[in-house]
Amino acid sequence: MIANLDLTMIWAGIIAFAVAMYVVMDGFDLGIGILFPGFKVGGERDMAMNAIAPVWDGNETWLVLGGGGLMAAFPLAYAIVLPALYAPLIAMLLGLVFRGVAFEFRWRHAGHRRLWDAAFCAGSVIATFAQGVTLGALLQGITVSGRAYGGGWWDWLTPFSLLTGASLLVGYALLGACWLLWKTEGAIHDDARRFARWLAPMLLIAISLVSAATPFLDGKYYQRWLAWPGVLAAAQVPLLVAITAFLLIRALAKGHERAPFLLTLLLFGLSMMGLAISIWPDVIPGRVSIWDAAAPERSQSFMLVGAVVLVPIILAYTAWAYWVFRGKIGEEGYH
Fold this sequence. Notes:
single chain; two-stranded antiparallel sheet; two-stranded antiparallel ribbon; 14 helices
């Protein structure tokens, strides 16, 4: 029983890590797609593409690891979540596929580059919004009947899930702007700073709205965030968010290039910490715990061997790719 408990928590940690890495790695290139119409046709858009071209292909690896890990390590949760969230998940996958095709074709089909640019932006917006809606729908609760999904086709569509979808659009756009602020120079660098200065306060408003609504979604959320004495510990997260936000706005005002991106990532990390406080130890909030949904111990042990080998390899080649393309991007490429 102790071994099973440990393995279950390890696998919950692996999946949480994969999701966090996906947000870090794919968030900024989706954000650049969201901001794409704001860049001038020609050189600026080409530089924006080149800023993510060397690294964007491997980002979905973490999404596959998270989804595949959920299916293998927590099959009951996978069987409930998938039918509950078919629509936004399919929209997300179609958006990712569409933007990937647009990314490649815009370089090969110059005569229709504007069309592919629009497709790249649309795919980025759809994928991001669908991810945010999925998160909101999961957080607000999924109807479970026995060991299966017991709700309807449109249960995921609520004001709260739309709010989380819009919030993620703002968050990814800010990540994209801060990445370009770090990696580019010239006119697009100035555009990125202007976008970031607008998006930073918008993200803080979005975080505040989602945070204010979350405790009232479920009694357990309310107890963890607002009931005494737990409020003393939980209050440290919004305090850290406020400090990080202050540092982010100051860094943008002072013209820093690397700090805004890192501070925005910290805001995302603190938001994930808040999410963990709300739902732990459930994989389906208020319905199914990680231990209820876990695969047999032997299955978890077998898969863990593969994860122990593959995750360091993925981290190594990802770090190597970012190291090789660590400089700024100019009109003639990296330097």
